[in-house]
Design brief:
about 325 residues, alpha+beta, Heme iron utilization protein-like fold, 9-stranded antiparallel sheet, 8-stranded antiparallel sheet, 8 helices, globular, Heme_Transport_Util_sf
Length: about 325
């Protein structure tokens, strides 16, 4: 089970305002051509890519495959995939949500030098992409010079529209029937649209056989048990413009305050457990079987991340959950 739709965005981020304060000095505004800039970046060699989301941060150091024509679908979603011996990365880019690009020339707050930061139309950071120290220095500078925006004094900070009222979810029998018929993410997105993407509203409206709330302690227990069994699991995170699913035998969880850190082969994951308000065990139709996932939601009932078997052994994943889920 992968991420099922794009989460909604909160107010304009402090990171955009921080960059705006350094605009024209340590930070330069680039043209609003994120796809062209991404294609150029992926040709520079090794990159360090950080994906932002509401309750997590994922950094990966790797040689990204170049984006090519033909890697997008009819909805304008671009994707790239990298497969290793025991790991798999699939990254989908909803480029229609990518809006502004800033180049960081010197360290600015937590942002490293020689990096680009991409923001969505709501002013939220999507990804930060830095060129690895051993590659691409001159090419990075040439890219920045070629894509400079003529206005280096101002940034356009967007204003969000008010949230619409929830629609009628319908009867319990109809809701569960629609759930049981949702064979893919697009089908399930229709259910979420009825409650304006507030997943907790949907999950509380069906019976435990579809969505069952479990104790938050379940997630670290599952992660620790998976590490002890050397079992691969799939972690999906995302924001308005990036959907990232990584399958790997993750390291044992390492804790730093409320942050749970996982690692595998150049990928570093930080999950902020303080942002997790509820944790749900979900069951949905899959490829010839029922698939199970753990999904974390924030205090607004919106999606943070999903942990599942992905393309791995579903029966082994269910056995792991049976030994780890805390009701």
């Amino acid at each position: 089970m992968s991420v099922m739709t794009w989460p909604s965005a909160p107010a304009t981020s402090p990171l955009l305002r921080q960059c705006g304060a350094a605009l024209g000095d340590r930070v330069l505004r680039l043209q609003d051509e994120p796809l062209a800039i991404l294609k150029a970046l992926y040709r520079l060699g090794s990159l360090v890519v950080t994906t932002f989301s509401s309750g997590s941060r994922i950094s990966q150091s790797m040689h990204y495959p170049a984006l090519k024509d033909g890697q997008s679908d009819v909805a304008g979603e671009w994707w790239l995939e990298s497969v290793g011996e025991r790991c798999r990365l699939r990254q989908s880019l909803q480029v229609g949500q990518w809006h502004s690009v800033l180049a960081v020339l010197e360290p600015t707050g937590a942002l490293p030098a020689r990096s680009l930061v991409f923001f969505d139309r709501n002013g939220q950071p999507l990804q930060q992409i830095a060129v690895a120290p051993a590659s691409g220095g001159l090419a990075f500078e040439e890219l920045v010079c070629a894509m400079l925006h003529p206005d280096q004094q101002t940034l356009s900070l967007p204003t969000l529209l008010p949230r619409m009222a929830n629609r009628d979810l319908g009867s319990l029998s109809q809701l569960e029937s629609d759930w049981a018929r949702s064979a893919d993410d697009d089908d399930f997105a229709g259910l979420l649209q009825r409650c304006q993407q507030q997943r907790a509203v949907l999950y509380r409206s069906v019976r435990d056989s579809f969505a069952c709330q479990v104790r938050p302690e379940t997630l670290p227990a599952v992660l620790a048990e998976a590490a002890s069994r050397d079992a691969a699991t799939t972690l999906c995170v995302g924001n308005q413009g990036v959907r990232l699913c990584m399958t790997a035998p993750w390291s044992s969880p390492r804790w730093q305050g409320s942050h749970c850190h996982l690692a595998h082969n150049g990928a570093l994951v930080s999950l902020d457990m303080a942002k997790m308000d509820s944790l749900w065990r979900l069951r949905r139709p899959g490829d010839g079987q029922v698939v199970t996932a753990l999904e974390a939601l924030d205090s607004r009932g919106e999606w943070l991340w999903t942990l599942s078997a992905g393309d791995s052994n579903e029966s082994g994943w269910r056995a792991l959950l049976k030994d780890s889920v805390i009701r």
